[in-house]
């Protein structure tokens, strides 16, 4: 599960998401493997026994507080 962070004040866009399981903050960077996993999660994939498996049609992160 993930949670969006508040938008950047300079341009009002969200640039970071928080992974709830380990409290990691993940920047929106295509080269970042954690960000790639987040994008896969949005599409309904999750890591199961070390492999990405389709577990739902899609996922939605928690909103920023």
Task: Explain this structure.
The structure is a single chain. This protein has one helix at residues 33-42; strands spanning 2-4, 16-19, 24-27, 45-48, 51-54. It has 65 residues and is α+β, with helices and mostly antiparallel strands. It has one domain (2-54). The strands form 2 sheets. The chain has a 3-stranded antiparallel beta sheet, covered by helices on one side. A two-stranded antiparallel sheet has the order 4-5. The chain starts with a strand and ends in an 11-residue tail after the last strand. The mean pLDDT is 95.
Summarize the structure.
By secondary structure, the protein is an alpha+beta fold. It has one helix and five strands. The strands form two sheets. Strands 1-2-3 form a three-stranded antiparallel sheet, with helices on one face. A two-stranded antiparallel sheet has the order 4-5.
Helix content percent band: 10-25%
Q: How would a textbook summarize the main sheet?
A: 3 strands, antiparallel
* Total helical elements: 1
Number of strands: 5
Helix and strand composition category: alpha+beta
What is the topology, as strand order, of the major beta sheet?
A: 1-2-3
Q: State the low-pLDDT regions, or none.
A: none
Give the N-terminus to C-terminus distance in angstroms.
15 Å
- Tally the structural domains: 1
* Rg over CA atoms: 12 Å
- Kindly state the mean pLDDT as a whole number? 95
Q: Shape from CA axes?
A: elongated
What order do the helices and strands follow? Answer: EEEHEE
Amount of beta strand:
25-35%
